[in-house]
């Protein structure tokens, strides 16, 4: 095992005391400029990093933001990209943490916030949390919480309007028998997307046929099974709106496996605009959810809260927009 560089190693290499090194790395007064520069050079050469735990014990601050996700999948990966970009504008570092799928169940946030807060992180972002009443002991911002905005500061996108845009797009193309693959029943985003779908149909004088509404659960494999059942109906839909892109991509795969040509025989539209949506064949029409911007907005909000700065609002909702690509066409 490689030797971990210690503060003593730095002191010996620089020819100074451990106390002097401590002053330099903690940016304290009382060190001559020449000595300061020499210690900094040795720190860089040896690759010395102070322990987060030791740092927190000394200063009560780690300058680390934790971002907790249930699992690393396309949505959370885009959130991480946005958060990582935004954190570069602050004096904080980012620590990504997962494990909820192994420990399972609602309330995973409480366990992991309790594990990390106090010694490892100064604040946290929790992505699609199952609860928003976690007493973390540090500032917390929730991104797209299961139950919608509640007590915690929240960042989300306009799911309802986005779903209306997708459904109206299909209606304007002449589709009247439109299938819907809903998301996870426990998520507020899924409820809002289904409500937007139903509202757009109602505005056009149409109704959501019960046999055409299925639960895809936001998962590729689940959506494939439900899409297969929709396409096996005697009076099948001519278009399907899937509540996320993973479900839409699964729907296109099933359609093509059964000999349907997209969009000639079946139009498909998704929601999220993950990077994979632009590389399907045909490319996937979808609703752009500014996922990276959500991660960035959450970082800026959390940093302001941690620094005690005034914030205009603790509930941030970002707009969604329609992205027309190759998977939707006229009836």
Description:
The chain has helices spanning 7-14, 18-25, 33-46, 52-59, 74-87, 100-103, 108-116, 159-172, 188-203, 220-231, 245-257, 291-306; strands at residues 64-69, 93-98, 123-127, 140-143, 154-157, 178-182, 213-215, 239-242, 267-269, 286-288, 315-318, 321-323. With 331 residues, the chain is α/β, with parallel strands linked by helices. Helix 11 (245-257) links the parallel strand 8 and strand 9. The mean pLDDT is 86.
Helix-residue proportion: 40-55%
What's the shape? elongated
Strand order of the largest sheet: 2-1-3-4-5-11
Strand content: 15-25%
> Biggest sheet: strands, sense, closure?
6 strands, parallel
The total count of strands amounts to 12
Query: What is the chain-wise order of helices and strands?
Result: HHHHEHEHHEEEHEHEHEHEEHEE
Number of discrete helical segments: 12
Low-confidence stretches: none
On the 0 to 100 scale, the average pLDDT is: 86
Class per helix and strand makeup: alpha/beta
**What integer value in Å does the Rg equal?**
25 Å
What is the first-to-last residue Cα distance? 65 Å
